[in-house]
Amino acid sequence: MSAIHYDLGSDQILTLTIDMPKQSANTMNAAFRDALNETVSKVQGDLDNIRGIIIASAKKTFFAGGDLNEIHKVTRGDAQAFEDMVNGMKARMRALETCGKPVVAAINGTALGGGYEIALACHHRIALNDNSIQLGLPEVSLGLLPGGGGTQRLPRMIGLEAAFPLLMEGKKLRPKAALKAGMVDELADSVDDMITKAKAFIEANPKCQQPWDKKGFKLPGGAPHHPTMAQKLAIAPAMLKQKTKGCYPAPERIMSAAVEGAQVDFDSGSLIETRYFAELVIGQVAKNMTGTFWFQLNAINGGGSRPEGVKKEPFKKVGVLGAGMMGAGIAYSTASRGMEVVLKDVSVENAEKGKSYSEDLLAKKVGRKRMTEEKKADVLARITATDTAADLEGCDLIIEAVFEDSNLKAKVTAEAESKLVKNGIFASNTSTIPITQLAKASDKPENFIGLHFFSPVDKMMLVEIIVGDQTSDDTLARAFDYVQQIGKIPVVVNDSRGFFTSRVFGTFVNEGICMLGEGIHPASIDNAGLLAGMPVGPLTISDEVSLTLMQHVRDQSKKDVEAGGGTWNAHPAEAIIDQMVNDHGRKSKAAGAGFYDYPAKSKKRLWPELETLYVNKAKASQVKLQDLKDRILFIQAIETIRCMEEGVLRTVEDANIGSIFGIGYAPWTGGAIQFVNQYGVREFAERARELAATHGERFAPPALLIEHAEQEKLFI
Ligand code: NAI
């Protein structure tokens, strides 16, 4: 069966329905290309009998885009064959586009990437007016570019400036917004309405040509050589570099393809696009990003870390203890996904304050017309703010987010646990205390688990699930389901102090602070963090987390390690943190003073005293940027390998996804373990040894790394 159904009606309107056999969505793979070849030849033969063509889909979505399984495998050696293949497919689409007859895309569902590019190659685009539909070119988020003509047709349709954010940020739009942006030409209320409108377009435009194929075509908004556009384009690459920090080749190549392509005829532009596309496809960053953001994320979302055989049952009522920053966020995320929430604090006033956090977030949504007043009221009505434990009766899950204090956590566990339904789950949102230790306060440690959220909860997509020594598979599976029910990404780790994310995060900030102690300029340190690809520098984030909290966590960990008979290995950063807090009263951003000053009416700036206290001019002027960047990325990757070695991490997928979504590990790397793989495991171990020799034993390769390096074995 062909992937494209060919139905030539008695009205001489040809409907091409894309319906890839044995696939739930249409993708651009070999079967599609064969079908396209065949179809286009047939169209060419039947052209005299065809008045117009409608391209439709038999799937729920219109077309999902390029086949990433195929793209991910392309190597440098395959580059020419890949280019030929892409150009071949584009030539078929071009043949339809230039056949002289009107071609209409009937977009019945989501059309992203290659899917939307098929629609772009049509003369008219009609989308179903359904808010669940997304349209756009998100290839950039996987390190790729729209290689099916997107970088050429979209700018020719809506202008370079309007196309840039869609191409370079991969923005996805709902049909109404897409209509406004000029990405589609019409909306339809139903599939029938869409076909009627498509036929009306064909009727009204018996001969059709794309604007760019007409004589005298002018690029909307001005061609690159137009003085105002030339001025904008002169600074555009610098502005882009400011965003990408040079870590992401895809948006740079997209800009090049679009601007260079806009200066030549369409077909030459299309060749330029394919060249850049192939360059990205075989490049390492696309491999990193596609591997992690597509394959590994899908594996996690597909339940890869969920124990099998446990029945999935939706959660209905969730208790949240502590209506502080975290509790308030957890309550919001849970109630907005339809669950009842009991938000308990020591006083109704506190609990109400926590609930008002949801009210504020929902009001913003209403203000932006993303939600109705009615829906907002529904969500709020689901949150009960209380100071009474009895209100927790009948919860399927209770999550505690009270102060980080083991005794208090034990107290609230004992108080609330009995209110759970039979087999209900008790979870702690502790950021550092081992779950096995906290579970001692529970009558049912098999039903006790860690659910480590990140701040701000409403924005952060990750939840780190921590399995204690006694946590059952059943509890893990159900906790996994809850995280998915609130639309977040679950990574599963075994118990340890600081688990995975807090441990690795600690190495990042400590390394930055340690550099300051060595005399390196603080501006160089934070810039090195950004240039390595971290979302913020280590000193900035230290202020945000607060130096006092870092002190508190360190003191608690030290006490516990020593109580267990171990020796605490002091990190060189500790002395600096103590000096900042104890000697200089510089506690945090919230307190108005940390590594930075936070003047009320102007932008933050580095605390000038850091220069006199720490900066060693001779050292600061000699330090190499690459060394600073390496230290920042290596120390976190090494700690991640230690977590694997100690069995804290269960899978490479969890390591990569957890590091990016939990702590912002440079996304271009594909995550802390993929950074090692792509660096070369042996080369990574060698560089780690070098860093250990210069900067301390903390960089020494762990045994697991040495084993992999010796066997030249990737972490998979
Ligand atoms: P917070 O200080 O903002 O809130 C704690 C809340 O617990 C306060 O409203 C307090 O009144 C309430 N509380 C105290 N005793 C209580 C009791 N007996 N019953 C009910 N409520 C009680 O603290 P935050 O930042 O929300 O942290 C809460 C927990 O989440 C801590 O364990 C923390 O380590 C953890 N966490 C914090 C993160 C952060 O970024 N702040 C990130 C991840 C976890």
SS class: alpha/beta
- Major sheet: size, sense and barrel closure? 8 strands, mixed
Could you say which overall geometry the principal axes of the C-alpha atoms support? globular
Q: From the 3D structure, determine the CATH topology of the domain at 4-282.
A: 2-enoyl-CoA Hydratase, Chain A, domain 1
Shape-level CATH architecture of the domain at 4-282: Alpha-Beta Complex
Uncertain spans:
none
Count every beta strand, where a strand is a DSSP E run of 2 or more residues: 21
CATH class of the domain at 4-282: Alpha Beta
CATH superfamily of the domain at 4-282: 2-enoyl-CoA Hydratase, Chain A, domain 1
Distance between the termini: 37 Å
Helix content: 40-55%
Instruction: Round the Cα radius of gyration to an integer and report it.
Output: 28 Å
Helix count from the secondary structure assignment:
30
Task: Look at the structure and give the mean pLDDT.
Answer: 96
Reading side by side through the largest sheet, how are the strands ordered? 14-13-12-15-16-17-18-19
The molecules bound to the chains, other than polymers, are: 1,4-dihydronicotinamide adenine dinucleotide
| Beta-strand percent range | 5-15%
Would you give an account of this structure?
This protein has 716 residues and is of the alpha/beta class. Among the domains are: 4-282, 2-enoyl-CoA Hydratase, Chain A, domain 1 (Alpha-Beta Complex); 317-496, 3-Layer(aba) Sandwich (Rossmann fold). It is 51% helix and 13% strand. The chain is built from 30 helices and 21 strands. The strands form 5 sheets. An 8-stranded mixed β-sheet has the order 14-13-12-15-16-17-18-19, sandwiched between helices. A 6-stranded mixed β-sheet has the order 1-2-4-6-8-11, with helices on both faces. A 3-stranded mixed β-sheet has the order 7-9-10. The two termini are 37 Å apart.
